[in-house]
Design goal:
Strand content: under 5%
Distance between the termini: 52 Å
Number of helices: 17
CATH topology of the largest domain: Growth Hormone, Chain: A
Structural class: mainly alpha
Shape: globular
Order of helices and strands: HHHHHHHHHHHHHHHHH
CATH superfamily of the largest domain: MFS general substrate transporter like domains
Length: about 400
């Protein structure tokens, strides 16, 4: 029995609700990334050094790692509609609090509140999607929702940074807070209400980990994220070392975000029918593009083409792995999903440190090669997880099964 389901998923696809969830994802990613683009202004405004101002971003991720599992368990009995609406409102309050903060300590507390909401959001949203869409449309729904991530990277963070440059960093956070209030209203009216049942399974991380396949997904997915952030964090030094023009740095970020949308679209078309084959091809393509990047010295078109493959692959692997963890988690899917939120945040943190070590020991041109190694490890785990973690989809099973031999006609 799947946890907390009171009725079968509706036959009609709830497009409006999925767009609202995608917008919530967009807001969450923009909130997470906004301080990184405004560090000089925040530093001056709060009278702290830029490295100290950077703690506003680091603490946001750290609080997710520390609180996501216990908070998800504590709030397990709250109806999902009410929880999602409350989390969107919390983002709005957190951003307004940062925008009005008189000192660094106040801003840090506000960011910690936002980080707590961020972790809870990602443990709640994907399981919520599976309850409000038809079972054969879950992949399509996740593709729509996760497009908000790429839009936050490609559009939200750059626009917020530009707004901060024009009107000041406080105005950027206050505008994002106002947008969050509007989104709270839309979420209240447009998200379906899903009632819990009295004997719903209580989230249990221990039992989720014991489910076959959960550990594999919870390791392979973060390895891919680790690889991405190892290279993404140090893309500027790589571009300079590769003798590429300065404008290529901002252009590469746009390419990664835009191609991520392409990858999400492709994953939405294939995750319900060919999840295993598609993930294997995608993971191999990411590894190959990273291995080849050092060969693009002085050749911007080749570098951007490889980054397009990398970005599209990154967008797609989120959909494939999200579907995999929900399937592998079974009735403990919420706890399993919470586990991946935690391990992915660890992957982001370790990825930046790993990329830094690669930069120091091997130089900027070898950072992509170092980043490709965890991708290869994730590919091996995916190949080994055929039975439980990454089983073939319905069309793949038909394709892989031997066809019956026809009797000759006399």
């Amino acid at each position: 029995m799947s946890s907390a389901i009171s009725a079968p998923a509706p036959a009609r696809f709830p497009y409006a609700a999925m767009v609202v969830l995608a917008t919530i994802a967009f807001t969450a990613i923009t909130t997470e990334l906004l301080p990184s683009g405004l560090l000089p202004q925040i530093s001056a405004g709060l009278n702290v050094s830029e490295p100290v101002a950077g703690y506003l971003a680091a603490a946001y991720a750290a609080v997710i790692v520390v609180t996501v599992v216990p908070a998800a368990r504590l709030l397990a009995r709250i109806p999902r509609h009410a929880l999602l609406v409350s989390l969107v409102l919390t983002f709005a309050v957190s951003n307004a609090w940062v925008g009005l903060a008189p000192d660094f300590t106040t801003a840090m507390i506000a960011r910690l509140v936002g980080g707590l909401a961020h972790g809870l959001l990602w443990t709640t949203m994907a399981p919520f999607v599976t309850r409000v869409v038809p079972p054969n449309k879950v992949g399509k729904a996740l593709a729509i929702v996760f497009s908000g991530n790429s839009l936050g990277l490609a559009i939200g963070a750059p626009v917020g940074t530009a707004l901060g440059g024009l009107l000041g960093w406080r105005a950027a956070f206050l505008v994002l807070a106002g947008f969050g209030l509007l989104l709270t209203v839309l979420a209240f009216f447009l998200l379906p209400r899903v009632q819990r049942i009295s004997d719903a399974v209580r989230p249990s991380l221990r039992r989720a980990i014991a489910e076959p396949g959960v550990k594999s997904v919870a390791i392979a997915w973060p390895l891919l994220v680790l690889a991405h952030f190892a290279l993404f964090t140090y893309i500027a030094p790589f571009m300079r070392e590769a003798a590429l023009p300065d404008y290529a740095i901002s252009l590469s970020l746009t390419v990664l975000g835009a191609s991520g949308l392409l990858g999400i679209w492709v994953a939405g078309l294939t995750v319900d029918s060919h999840p295993r084959r598609s993930l294997l091809i995608t993971t191999a393509a990411i590894a190959l593009s990273m291995f080849l990047l050092p060969l693009a010295v002085g050749n911007l078109p080749v570098a951007l083409a490889l980054m397009t493959v990398w970005g599209a692959g990154l967008g797609a692997i989120g959909i494939y792995n999200q579907s995999a963890i929900l399937r592998a988690g079974g009735e403990y899917r919420e706890a399993a999903n919470g586990l991946t939120v935690l391990t992915i945040q660890l992957g982001i943190t370790i990825g930046a440190l790993y990329g830094s070590a690669a930069l120091v020991t091997g130089g900027a041109l070898l950072v992509p090669v170092a980043a490709a190694l965890p991708v290869v490890a994730a590919l091996v785990i995916t190949l080994a997880g055929k039975k439980y973690a990454y089983p073939p989809g319905p069309r793949e099973r038909v394709w892989l099964e031997p066809r019956p031999v026809k009797e000759p006609v006399n």
